[in-house]
Here is the input.
Amino acid sequence: MFKCDKCGLCCKQVGKFPFMKDYNRGDGTCRFLTDENTCSIYERRPPICNTELLYERIYSRVMTREEFDRMNTSACEKLKSYAKTTQR
Here is the structure.
């Protein structure tokens, strides 16, 4: 299972994705992200934000759970690496 460490970086990127425009609070960050980097609508979050639901509805048809978790972990690590290089 993909383990989210609640860094909030993915939630701070919604402005880069046109399909997430309804979630953008105007600065590229999800309007439901709290100051503690948690989701204020966690139980009702959209499927794109719910890795369990996303896997079951879409990705389970094309990859194993292990592949999906590796894909998410890799994307998360790349986002963190990118964030480090742009903060310098």
In short: The chain has two domains: 7-45, 50-88. The two ends are 32 Å apart (CA to CA).
